[in-house]
Amino acid sequence: MPLGTLERDAPSLFRQGPSALSRLVFFCALALFLMVADARFGLTQPLRAAVSAVLQPLQWLALQPVQAVRQAADYVESRNTAQQVEAAAKRLLVQQSLKANQVDQLMLENQRLRDLLALRQRVDTPARAAEVLYDAPDPYTRRVVIDQGLTQGIEPGSPVLDESGVLGQVTRVHPFLSEVTLLVDRDQAIPVLNTRTGVRSVAYGDPTGPAGGGLELRFTPTSADVQEGDLLTTSGVDGVYPPGLPVAKVDRVERRVDSAFARIHGAPLAQTQGARHVLVLKPGAAELPQRPASHLPATAASGAAGKKGARK
Amino acid sequence: MIMPRGQQLLLPVNPVFIWSSLLVAMVLNMVPLGRLAWTPDLLMLLLVFWSVHQPSKVGMGAAFVFGLCMDVHQAALLGQHALAYTALTYVAITFHRRLQWLTLPAQAVQVLPWFFAAHVIELVLRLLAGGIFPGWSFLLAPLLEALLWPVASFVLLAPQRRAPDRDENRPL
Predict the structure, then answer these.
(1) How far is A95 from chain B (nearest CA, A)?
(2) Pick from A74, A209, A278, B26: CA 20 to 30 A from residue B94's CA?
(3) CA distance A19 to B150
């Protein structure tokens, strides 16, 4: 047997490098530092963007089998289903064409009324179509990844809609991809308006609910006028989401004796599972009016000084 | 070096094979199957496998870099997989001589708690960072990885089990 065919070779006696334990400590410290920088300070975006750009070809490769299956499923979809979908679409088109024909007239009327009342004009929001590539595999959050990123001009914070309502918000932008946090994620909140009563509130994500989670209106008094079936739309007070977009329908109202607040649960109208084509709006297009330059701070400061003085 | 009785002498490993197998495992990990907590982490399995069999070639640095790649791909907390993979590789390097004395099923039983610990590290980190509890199905992931261990050993050591010099009349 020739030399060099055996797997076992003697390790070098002197060139061992740092010990395994010291390497472990070094890398664990580095990982902990990265986690803190990522979660608390948000410093790691350049590193993420760089790694994401490097991984792009591999991600594309991994996506191919799934997209092939999707396309094959679309292709072999039966004629029956296609005809049903077409009929439904035609019915919807007829219903919508009536509204669409009136829209021009209504817009003109609306503009005149707003001029009359000296209100600010509504702003048209520029939008961009995008496709959902996949659900982010991280099971600890609710995110999806869309196929447009920094190179297409996506900005962090952009609202994302599908055909039936608000889906979520762009939270991280990579060079070729963006991550969209869904409304049902625990960290997500959206200001809403109850269209029946005109009451504004904030809906928080509640990922534990059935069918992929829902939204929750927190801190609503038990006596508040909220019924099952109420439509919640964006109120536009945050200046991120344009007003009037449908968000959710109230599907459960629990009033308890032992609590001053009602538990109000809403089901999102957008498809939080399996959305494919989405619209990315420009954030902050509904610009808030300038804050009036107030002289309050001066008086407040003097008041505080006075209090301090009084305490002394 | 003392070897277990009856163990076959292996050919030297090809480094290209190690790194390409790790890359393939990473791509397989990246196939988007949805948000499932129980999918086995193939990259984790292969990192443990190579650090048991080739601790001088695959170490904690590689585990850390691969972990960062998985973090960015999964949109997870940056450093979560890196920490779990590094700790797992450390355990594998520490116990690699002991593990090679066992039969394949016994090895699978031996590595099960390692994988379990790695997944628990990830879970605890994410719950501390304010994540959503993914459901108890995440316990299936280490089990599936341990079940894949004998398969991985059989497939990945196959290139090293070939005959050193080919002989038409004595095929091995």
Answers:
(1) 35
(2) B26
(3) 29
Report the residue of B83, B85, B100, B136 to disrupt the A interface, i.e. the one with the largest count of A CBs within 10 Å.
B83
Q: Do A7 and B9 touch (CB under 8 A)?
A: yes
pLDDT tens sequence across A50-104: 999 999 999 999 999 988 988 888 888 777 888 888 999 999 898 888 888 888 8
Burial A247-281 (b: 16+ CB within 10 A, else e): bbbbeebeeeeeeeebebbbbbbbbbeebeebbbb
Rounded CA-CA distance A42/B78 in Å is 10
- Block residue for tokens 């972990």: B67
Which chain A residues touch B127 with a CB distance below 8 Å?
Answer: 140
> Would you call B75 and A34 a contact, using CB atoms and an 8 Å cutoff?
no
Best CA proximity match to B100, nearest among B165, B169, B138, B157: B157
Do the Cβ atoms of B30 and B73 come closer than 8 Å?
yes
Q: Where along chain A do its domains lie?
A: 122-281
Kindly report the backbone phi and psi dihedral angles of residue A265, in degrees, each rounded to the nearest multiple of 5, phi listed first: -115, 135
Which residues have CB under 8 Å from A295's CB, separation 6+?
A: none
Judging contacts by C-beta atoms under 8 Å, the chain B residues touching residue A5 are: 11-12, 164
Listed by start position, the domains of chain B span 15-29+39-159
Would you call B61 and A27 a contact, using CB atoms and an 8 Å cutoff?
Answer: yes
CA distance A147 to A179: 9
Closest CA to B30 of A136, A141, A179, A146: A136
pLDDT in tens, B114-163: 999 999 999 999 999 888 888 888 899 999 999 999 999 999 988 888 76
The minimum CA-CA distance between A22 and chain B, rounded to whole Å, is 10
This model's pTM is above 0.90 = no
Contact at CB, B86 and A31, closer than 8 angstroms: yes
Q: CB–CB of A20 and B26 under 8 A?
A: no
A40 DSSP 8-state letter? I
Distances from the Cα of A296 to the Cαs of A81, A224, A292, A302, in angstroms? 64, 33, 11, 10
For residue A288, the one-letter residue type is L
> CATH code for A122-281?
2.40.10.340
Name the residue among B10, B32, B127 with its Cβ closest to that of A7: B10
